Amino acid sequence: ERCTVFMESDLVHYQQQGMAKDDLVAGLSYSIVQNYLNKVVEDRRIGNTIFFQGATAANRGMVAAFEAVLNKKITVPPHHDVTGAIGAAILACQERTWKTSKFKGFDLADREYEITSFECNGCPNHCEIRQVKITGEKPLFYGGRCEKYEVQREQAQVELPDLFKEREAWLYGDEPPAEGRRGPIGLPRVMFFHELMPFFRAFFESLGFTVVYSWTCWKPV
Question: What is the DSSP track for 141-169?
Fold first, then answer.
């Protein structure tokens, strides 16, 4: 019942001691099964008809470990890696209230498309956004940490302030640091220095130093 980081450390440790690869793989499979049963299933009842779905079901060692621990037959469906997607599609067909679908069709892979990328400068994350252009379709976007490009929303008429710029002005001020008699001292724009910059600036200026900020972070750095 350990996280994957510690499990990996244990595997490396036992591997360095010369333990056989088969034993390592078997031990890993059993530990994952026990971790799942104890952390996910807990005290819930397990029936006799068990379907193992998801990409992990392709691991025959995991299937064998589940069968050995539960002493029950584990059934792996033919399309175990997309079983959830198939079920979602069936439910959508049963409960749909629309006449036309946005489904692109099974021939999507045969259609002409172009993938490009650009950097979003809307916030300090500078996400790399990928744009997929399909002939006759609106472009699709993915890769961002937010839904700025993925979700199409109606543009509001209200102009919102740039809160990131306002925070930057509050932290670093509009006026440049005062010249001190004791020379310059550098303050990095990172971690608690960034969050408490007004305090550090006032503190070092009161001691007679000239505060010098580090460069604004940018992607190549």
Answer: EE--SSSTTTS--PPPSSPPP-HHHHHHH
Q: What is the pLDDT of residues 60-112, one digit of tens each?
A: 999 999 999 999 999 999 889 998 889 998 998 888 887 877 777 778 778 88
The 10s digit of each residue's pLDDT in 188-210 is 888 888 888 888 888 888 888 88
> Structurally, how many domains does the chain consist of?
3
Show which of 137, 157, 177 is a domain's final residue: 157
Kindly report the CATH number assigned to the domain that includes residue 58.
Answer: 3.30.420.40
| Contact (CB, 8 A) for 144 and 120 | yes
Q: Show the domain range for 201.
A: 163-213
Quote the CA–CA distance of 154 and 29 in Å, as a whole number: 49
Same domain, 73 and 18: yes
Residue 170 within a domain? yes
Which residues, 6 or more positions from 119, have their beta carbon under 8 angstroms from its beta carbon?
Answer: 126, 127, 128, 129, 219
From CA 131, how far away is CA 74, in angstroms rounded? Answer: 41
Q: Which residue has the higher pLDDT, 193 or 115?
A: 115
pTM reported for the whole predicted model: 0.46
- Determine the Cα–Cα distance for residues 175 and 182; give it in Å rounded to an integer: 20
Is the domain of 171 the same as that of 149?
no
